[in-house]
């Protein structure tokens, strides 16, 4: 079988700026069968929930343990392949990040950070992004999981890959931002770009996916769409409708700025009205979906009114396009809601309907007093999104999509003759290498 793929990506990052109009593709690579019964791979790095941002910080990695225990309690491990991925290496992180920033993250400790001033400012560590014990190992774990999940998709051995510990969409090339240190999403998209012509990135965290948008702002191979609360005093303060991308990436960034209190019906209807034509126009070869759970009602930072069912409906809708799908976590500041939401969405992706009674698990007491997967939503916030403003967003986005004017073409190349050596040099585990070799229809050497 002749295989074709993109050239490898290196740290000088050819994919950030598409410097030329690409010629017609020789052929498109379709790795995956349409998935009425998709193969789902689930990534949970062991111990990722044991890190602590600090007592007064809203981000609690422990929510990842709650999620994983709920997934196991519901028996979803029987419906997916389960993986404890290795940590990302410095070289892998340097595919996007500046090496001085990586070196800083690697050496800084809570003690040494006490006497930092210039570096603290340069790398933006402090209140939002504290230097906590083993922060670098935390970054390596969640990023290693997103990279392994992306490779699982490119190898064709799964249709859907899930990493709830990933999705840290604010991290920049050379600095931390908004609780995020390493941008696992950008790194995973770069991995997908080695094999996939066009990647669609969708972000339903209540915050704007600024780090991912910025990384691919000039690229026509990655289309980013973020739904978020947009106001001058809400972090990060970007994501206006008028941010559309630049150079070859013009019209390849879409933003859906919303106000407090949006409800299930308006959100779902707008989400579908935006995503359906986006997918049909851009025709992505794979999709990355960031599922930040701070867009749920009753979040400690977010101020939308979404139910878990509505959040999950967005996931179900994207799944229905039957494209290779990488699903990631993100924000979410009420631990029990985050775990409920992501366990429910794991069920949606694996095609398993979950009973409403929370199963016995290590964190059962977190789900009281009702112990239900879908507790009734309380404390709704006034919906400040008028019908008119939502209709205006819909019209403006559809207008922008007209400028996309067909998907860009991507030049493909013959596969390197020594794929095995090439793959091994990419620091893959033997399992990953063999999986990819098999999927490429190539002989596996021992
Ligand atoms: F409330 C806090 C208490 C302690 C430390 C931080 C916060 C906090 C709440 N909201 N910090 C924020 C946001 N930062 C600011 C800063 C004030 N400065 C001038 C800026 O408003 C940051 C919110 C980050 C949200 C992260 C995320 O949910 O999008 C996420 N996505 O993936 C992982 C996390
Ligand atoms: Ca968002």
TrEMBL record:
GO molecular function: histone deacetylase activity, hydrolytic mechanism; metal ion binding
Entry keyword Signal: no
Residue ranges of every copy of the Histone deacetylase domain listed in the record: 57-348
Annotated catalytic residues: 170 (proton acceptor)
Biological processes annotated in GO: epigenetic regulation of gene expression
Residues where substrate binds: 128, 178, 333
Region (Disordered): 425-446
Keywords attached to this entry: Chromatin regulator, Hydrolase, Metal-binding, Nucleus, Transcription, Transcription regulation
EC id: 3.5.1.98
Compartment list: Nucleus
SUPFAM superfamilies: Arginase/deacetylase
Residues annotated as binding a divalent metal cation: 205, 207, 294
Signal peptide: none
GO cellular component, one term: Set3 complex
Main localization of the protein described in the UniProt heading: nucleus
Reaction(s) catalysed by this chain's protein: N(6)-acetyl-L-lysyl-[histone] + H2O = L-lysyl-[histone] + acetate
Domain of life: Eukaryota
Family: Belongs to the histone deacetylase family. HD Type 1 subfamily.
Protein name: Histone deacetylase
Organism annotation: Kockovaella imperatae
